[in-house]
Structures are given as structure tokens and as C-alpha cells.
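Um, can you check?
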Amino acid sequence: MPLAIWGAFEVTRLPIDAVPDITDNQVQVLTVSPSLGAPDVERLITFPVEQSCSNIPGLKQIRSFSRFGLSLVTIVFEDETDLYWARQQVAERLQQVTRDIPEGIGAPEMAPVSTGLGEIYQYVVRPEKGYEGKYDAMELRTIQDWIVRRQLMGTPGVAEVSSFGGKLKQYEIAVKPEQLKAYGITIGEIFNALEKNNQNTGGAYIEKGPTVLYIRSEGLTTSLEDIGKIVVKNTSNGLPLLVRDVADVRYGAAIRYGAMTYNADGEVAGAVVLMLKGENSSVVVKRVKDKVAEIQKSLPKGVVIEPFLDRTKMVNNAIETVKNNLIEGALIVVFVLVFFLGNVRAGLIVSSVIPLSMLFAIILMNMFGVGGNLMSLGAIDFGLIVDGSVIVVEAVLHRFSHAKKFRSADRISGAQMDEEVMQATGHTINSAVFSQIIILIVYLPILSLQGIEGKMFKPMAYTIAFAILGAFILSITYVPMMNALFLNKKLNHKPTLADKMTIWLERRYQPLLRRVMFYPLSVISATIGLFVVAVLLLMGMGGEFIPQIEEGDFAVETRLLTGSNLNNTIKYTQQASKILLEKFPEVEKVVTKIGSAEIPTDPMPFEAGDMMVILKPKKEWTSAKSFPELSEKMTEELQAVPGITVGFQFPVQMRFNELMTGARQDVVCKIFGDDRTHWQFTRTG
């Protein structure tokens, strides 16, 4: 009973996810520099950051990415290194780098404390039907940044809310060149005037009688009118020359490096919620959903927050698969045990070890930080778990059926039951222990795996080891006690159905075995031949690092010709979205993320985008019966969009590929060399 209560409590605390997080122990350094090209970003920002961090203890590798306006340096540490200590070391070195980088071209900053699979919740902020003309991309982005994001940032377990798409609202001063020339002033003078006239200042205090008056000068601009009234200089006749005299002051948008579109309805704003490393994704997603429901009440009329990618959907699919497999496996084991033991009570006693050993395993999983997912929970074999318990119970039943002193007895006393159970358990304890040790030894090599392989398969080995350990303890404590209490004390010497079937099989097997013993060479040759055939078939089967998990939605990597601008990419991805929505009733909505987010942990160029195709439940599909078939048909239809290439994957699978190989697709060709004049490309298949 204490084990059941403790285990039930630990079940509520077990972190649940779909797959293990294989992200390295890493710190990312981001530097945004809108005015620099890729070579200058590499020379002035990326290289100094790499050099300054190259001697940190525990460093495993440094990889970087430089492109126009952005530097991304990923510093990977050994798994044993404490992440927050590593971030402190990186922060200390970035202070020196910031002093060495020329002023005004960007300041390196560390990315949020998240992981490659930390994108647990993604949403769009869009106008409802009938309000499309009231809210444009700039107003939606303003609502996202000033209302939605600020409230979501206070949610426990959320590391960052990275805004995506829309237009960032700014005050814009459009200088008139002819006015500058007429008044004899320069751009530099306007910059200086704006900087000096846009700040608050203090002047200590004045004592007046028994009170004190604090001196404060308010100079921060709060409107377009305030900016327009700033004095640039005085003219020769003493009149002040204002900003509005030499420029148009208006609202504008910052330079954009990304966009987000919803269906074929145009641009919207949105965000990606990043989970803090080590948090329980299921719990954090629930908190985010509750917070979003609260925020929705405070939004202007006609604006709605609509999620399009939710980790809960994938987790539920994976857990549903695990639950079905566990239930079906448990029922099969129970049926087999009851049938072959020939005793319903004995079968149920052995079967009760399954849930108790699972609870024991979950207790240890929480203690050792092993989360529940498709790899850890889905790999449990109930046949292995009940092995020791079957040996103990079968030994007790065997004594009742074959011991001479019970052949003429119809019933035994409680004292006799206790004695027989103790003797049977004592005689078989070595066999039970040995069988469990053999099973555990099989999983020891998995515990030696390192890197991505270790992160993927170690949880499975730990979970199975915990479950087998629990089953072993139960087989020598709980099972003998339950045998003594609940096994029927009324003896039945009649053969069971399983006994009859075993006798029938043995009568037919023995003659065949005697014949085979006369032809040892033929048996050995046939065995070797079958082994060779099996090896040949295995070599031609191919393989996968992990099986593909049907996550329920598609992540379509879209590419246009290199050099395409943002508006061009928006135009053609909108055409693709329209085709998918019109031709495939399985599609619920399509959200496309183009370029980079506000926090560019996953930077893409203007010509690249991630088209998230959100699908209806599989039972409602009509165009195809499987995900591969549906992706093939969608790819064929999207060929009608000129200049666009697509690659269909699942969202988390795409991130897995990127984390493992640096590329998103399953098959990638990397070409290295300085002289590109002699490169030739040939496509086959």
C-alpha cells in the first residue's frame, strides 16, 4: 500500500514529453548588426566572440553562423558542465568582447536558457473575421509586444517569448535633403539634437522651510509633436530651427528580417514561447494556455490569440500510443499467465507485479531526473518484468501438484501453505535473481552511450532497469506473501487445459527430435544457411536512428531562389498556402514563418520559410490514408507555384535533424572548396 500511494503521487510529478531532448549543453550568443554584411559580421563580431570563449573549461566545440545583420555563435559544453556556470563564464568574456567591438555595430547577448526543443507553444495574433481592415500588421505587432508578450513573460517555466512577424512600430524622421542644404545643417547635427533633447535629468533638491523640493527636468519625447518641436539650431536672425522644419516626423516600421502569414489572408503577428531548460513541458504548456485565456479578455475587440503549434498535441499522440501499447501488452501477459499457470489467482498475483513495478520505476525516474516519453515508457517489456515472479509462483504450484505428501490431500492448512511458500521461494531464489541479472546485463552497453545517442537511449535503459529492479524486489517479498494469503488452499490434482496442451505438444515433439538427432550435419548447415540469409536481408533493410513519430502536423521547409526579398517570399508562400487550403480538406490552417524572429535562435534568410500545415485528425482525412501519401500529393500540387521548392517533415523531427546534423532534411549534400568554377552537380533518382 505505501508503494502504491507513493508511486501514484510520483506519477503526478513525472515530466511527460513525446521524445527525449537531445540538445547539447550549450550557450548561444546573438549579435544583431543591421548595417554590416556577412564578411564584416564574421570579422568584427563572430571571430572575436569565438576567440574570447575558446578557453572556457569544459568547452566541447564552438560553431558559428554569420550572415547579413546577424551573428550566431553556439558554444557547446560537456554534459557534466553546469549550464548556469557556463553562462556566467560566457558573460564575463562578452564584457571584454563588447569593449573590443567598434561602437555602434552591435552588442553580443546570450540567448534564453532554453533548448533546441524548447519551442513548446506558437501562436498568431490576428484580427477576427470582419475586423481585417481595422488592424494592420503594425498594430498587431504592437498588441503582441505590449500586451501579450509582457504578460506571458511572467508565466513560470517560460524562458522567453520571441515575437515573430508584423511591423515593429517606430518614430520615423524623414529628412528633407533640400531643407538641410538651404539651412546649411548636416545629418550629424540632427542626430545630436535628437539625442540631447530626449532625456530626463535631475538637479538634486531645494530646502524650502520644513520641506524639501526635488528638482527634475522632463525632456523625454512622448509624441510626434514633441519630436517635431526639438530645436536643431538657431538661424542667423536668432529664430530656432525645429526638426519639423527640415524633416517629416511620422510613424514608421523598423527594418524587417522576418514575417508571419496566416492562411492566405496576409500578414499577422505572433510569437514562439520558449520553455526554460529542465522544466516539465506539459505543465508549462498548461500554464501558458491558462495565461493566454486571461490575456484574451484584455485584448481590443476583434483581435484573437490563436495557437497553431502546441506541444500538447504531439505529447498526447505519443502518450496515447504508449498507453495503448502498455494496456495491450499487459492484457496479453495476463492472459498468457492465467492460461499457462492454470490458476486464475496465481495469474492475477503475477500480473499485479506489473503496475507495482511501474510505480516503483516512476519513483526512481523522478529521483534520477528521467522523464517519461515514447522512448523511456514505450520500450518496457512486461514479459521481462514478471519473469522472476513467474519462477516463484510456478515453483509453489509445482510443489502442490507433484510433492508426494499432497497427492492424497484435498486441502492444506495455513501453516502448511506458509511453509511450502517459504521453501519454494528459497529453492528458486537463485534462479529468479540470475534471470533478472542476465536481463540487466543486456542493457549495460546502452548506459555507456555518449552524446546524442546517450540522450536518446539512456532513458530507456534506466526505465527498464528501474522496473526490473522493482519487479525483483517484489518477487522475493510481495509475491511470496500474496501466494501464502490468496492461493487456494483446496488442492486440485486434475490436469489443466495448459497441461493437456503441453502433453499433446510433447508427444509430437519427442519423435521429431529423435529423428533430427540422427542428422546433425544437416541441422547445422540449415542453421548456418538461415543465418547468412538473415544477415543479407538485414544489410539491405536500411535503418533509422529513431522511428518517425506522426506528430499530427507538417512542417514544410520552403525555399525560393537565393536573393529573393521578403515581399516576394510572402507572395509565393501565400500562393502555396491557398493551394493547400483549397485542394486538401485535411488542412485546418497554414501559418508560414519567413526569415528570423525577434530573438533569432533559428535564423533563416529572406528566401526561406517554415510553412506549418496544421491538419485535422487522421480519421477525418479523405485525400490520403497516410502522412507520406498526403505529403506526396501536396508536393505535386505545390509544383504549380513558380520557383518554390518544398520539403515535408514533422515539426519536431525537423528540429531533431537540425540538432544532430545542422541540416533539416534527412539527406543533405555539403560541398567544400575554394574554386567553384569547376563544380558540377548531377541529380540522380
